[in-house]
Specification:
globular; Rossmann fold; alpha/beta
């Protein structure tokens, strides 16, 4: 990354941070938050079922997304989920409810004000299987192959280094893991000037990728089964979209469907993948994650500071069974 590009990224990141810090203040004041000039009431529309929002409490009124990533993520009990740009915590709380007590939901955000709000909402909801981490989506503070599902709601478009985001998603996903996000994309046929103006009007200050470019960059990061589907036009030539992708089971060749089923059975028999270690609990408000002075851009969490692999929290016999199952699963994937 050149110096000019790095400086530009820092400026864009600070603009995003300021916008979302202001939005958090609007929520606390009982106002409807928005970072979109074109749609000051937000772009989610009726993406969420009222019953879902009822379970999310105050977090339901604080969403700044452009869709509902949970509608495409197909979460199941026991999975570990990561929400990139988790904001006030809506999708994390809904994910935690979906994956149940044996699962876990992380939220990652760079804005202290939003993290405070999310932790408050988690405490109010009584959620015990969530944690909100401070950091950047270009340098996720979790270990390799540590989550089953990555979700995000209209945040990836805000990054000035989208290839880095996609590479990090591929890194933290477990083999067979999947991506399910809502984001903004540009029509491949729209002229550049129209796209730039439209993207700015909906708060996408670093620009939006065209549909074909979004697909190509996910594939370049090593993800497969990529699908980018536009849902509704939010400004001229710019659409909200649902994006799906997955991390392959093996590289470069894939296992057959029968092999994948066998891998799942082996891992399920041993209790699944271990979760990554957690530095602190989301609802322990007396011990928040490290903060940066308000008004200064957040500093990316270095790779060396990432949370290490979980040493295992189950009983030794279960851990041994998982190890045996993972060895058999590895043989299935590579044999």
């Amino acid at each position: 990354m050149t110096t000019d590009h790095a400086d530009g990224s820092a400026v864009a990141r600070e603009r995003v941070r300021t916008c979302y810090a202001t939005a958090a203040g609007q929520v606390r004041a009982g106002q409807t938050p928005s970072c979109s000039e074109a749609d000051p009431a937000g772009m989610c529309g009726d993406a969420y079922d009222p019953a879902q929002l009822a379970h999310a409490g105050a977090a339901g009124a604080a969403s700044l997304g452009c869709g509902n990533p949970l509608a495409v993520a197909e979460l199941v009990a026991g999975e570990t989920v990561l929400d990139l740009g988790s904001g006030a915590g809506l999708d994390v709380l809904l994910s935690a409810r979906r994956v149940g007590p044996d699962g876990f939901a992380y939220g990652l955000d760079m804005t202290d004000e939003m993290l405070d709000l999310a932790r408050q909402h988690a405490a109010e909801a009584g959620a015990t299987n969530v944690e909100f981490l401070r950091g950047h989506i270009e340098a996720i503070p979790l270990s390799d192959a540590s989550v089953d599902v990555v979700i995000s709601n209209c945040v990836i478009n805000l990054s000035a280094d989208k290839p880095a985001v996609f590479a990090e998603i591929a890194r933290v996903l477990r083999p067979g893991g999947r991506l399910g996000v809502s984001d903004l994309v540009a029509d491949d046929r729209a002229d550049a000037a129209t796209v730039v103006e439209a993207a700015t009007s909906v708060g996408a200050i670093t620009g939006v990728l065209r549909q074909s470019a979004y697909r190509a960059e996910l594939e370049e990061a090593g993800l497969t089964a990529v699908a980018v589907t536009a849902t509704r036009e939010v400004a001229a030539g710019v659409f909200s979209a649902i994006i799906r992708a997955s991390r392959p089971w093996t590289s470069p060749a894939h296992t057959s469907p029968m092999d994948r089923q066998a891998v799942h059975q082996e891992l399920k028999r041993a209790g699944g993948f271990p979760r990554p270690a957690r530095a602190s609990h989301a609802c322990r408000l007396e011990a928040p994650l490290a903060r940066h002075p308000v008004g200064q851009p957040a500093t990316a969490v270095p790779h060396a500071a990432r949370i290490p692999d979980h040493p295992g929290s189950r009983e030794p016999r279960q851990a041994t069974a998982r190890g045996d199952a993972e060895r058999r699963a590895s043989a299935l994937m590579t044999g």
